[in-house]
Amino acid sequence: MFLADWYCFVYILIFIRKNDAVLWSFFSFLWRLLIPFIVAGLIAYLLHPLVEKLHGMNIPRSLAILLIYFIFFGGTGYLLYRGYPAIVHQLRDLNENLPQFIDMYENLIYQLYNYTSFLPETIHDKIDELVFSLETSLERLLNRLIGGFAKIVDMLIIITVIPVLVFYFIKDYTTIKSFIVKFIPVRYRDDATKLMQEIDKGLGGYIRGQLIVSAFVGLTSLVLFKLLNIKYALLLSVIMGITNIIPYFGPIIGAIPAVAISFTTAGNKAILVIIAIFIIQIIDGNLLSPYIMGRSIEIHPVAIIFVLLLGGSLFGVRGMILAVPVLTISKVIVAQILALRSYR
Q1: Is the pLDDT of residue 153 over 70?
Q2: Cα(241)–Cα(221) distance, rounded to whole angstroms?
Q3: Cα(247)–Cα(296) distance, rounded to whole angstroms?
Q4: Which of 32, 117, 213, 303 has its CA 20 to 30 A from that of 162?
């Protein structure tokens, strides 16, 4: 019943977006209003277990909250202070040099034409369409990224509000949970509490684990790219770290820009970049990810790949990022419903 209601809600939102501009504007405004609370709630949810671990080591809870709070936001602030200007500079430089890179790849494609001249002309036309669409998409993406980073100044209020909200969410975590539980009817309260515990056990571990793995991939890539003296090292390592959040497909998506740009800017080092990425993914794929995926969600890889493809086809990269968490929640809900029916 819950899943049917959820699908109905999503369908209603899609219908409103296509047919009612006023209501969709209202939902957009509401979403922008709630973003700081959603982001702060997610951060507090991820940091709360660390606070509880420190508190379990006989550290006063208030001191544990302050310690985790300052480590997280101090580290985040330092990374933004050091990384933000460099990333914006590299994005702008890449955007300015994009025509030269495109010319280089067009020359390679023309050479490919000479080797494939025996193929029908329609195939060459399709290749031209593909190249043109890639050029347009890449240029649009870079402009959006530059604009998005530039708009961070407009988001100073949100950035200022989030740390305050996170502090109070962590401080009053138990109180907030008790307050939410009061809205659940008494007859369903025990079942709902158990359901939330099961979701937390799978989803929380998965999200924290994926963030740790992504941070490892990003930092290791940055070190190796710096050692190889690859241009746009910081930007490429950030892309690899972010895309690594997506299981299975993320490493491939993140590796494509790194290999393409290294081939363009330092052709003789492209092989070394491929080897470096391969080593990183061996460590990630054989040591880190299986440990996290196996212990956290216990879902067959085929099911994960299916929902990744489905999420990607429906909502693009955002759908691929959210696919596994949504699958995890759905699995827990279905399992709890079946268990309750069997018990009753």
Answers
A1: no
A2: 8
A3: 13
A4: 213
The residue to which tokens 């407009």 are assigned: 154
Q: Which residue, 176, 155, 5, 150, is CA-closest to 87? A: 150
User: From CA 286, how far away is CA 21, in angstroms rounded?
Assistant: 48
Q: What is the pLDDT of residue 137?
A: 62
Per residue in 223-255, is it b (16+ CB within 10 Å) or e — as a string? ebbeebebbbbbbbbbbbbbbbbbbbebbebbb
* pLDDT tens for each residue of 235-269: 889 888 888 888 777 788 888 888 888 877 766 77
pLDDT tens profile 29-50 = 777 778 888 888 888 888 888 8
Cβ proximity of 40 and 165 under 8 Å: yes
Most confident of 152-156, 200-204, 255-259: 255-259
CA–CA separation, 285 vs 292, rounded Å?
Answer: 10
Quickly tell me which residue has 């602030």 as its tokens.
77
Instruction: Judge contact between 274 and 259, C-beta under 8 A.
Output: yes
Position with higher pLDDT, 322 vs 2: 322
Those residues whose C-beta lies under 8 Å from the C-beta of residue 318, and which sit 6 or more positions away, are: none
Per-residue pLDDT tens over the stretch 313-340: 777 777 778 888 888 888 877 777 777 6
Q: Is the dihedral of CA 267, 142, 215, 256 positive or negative?
A: negative
Helix (H) or strand (E) holding 206: helix 205-227
Q: How far is CA 181 from CA 41, 186, 188, in A?
A: 16, 9, 10
- Global pTM? 0.71
Distance between CA 207 and CA 41 in Å, rounded?
14
Measured CA to CA, the distance from residue 325 to residue 319 in angstroms comes to 10
Of 176, 208, 177, 163, nearest to 39 by C-alpha is 163
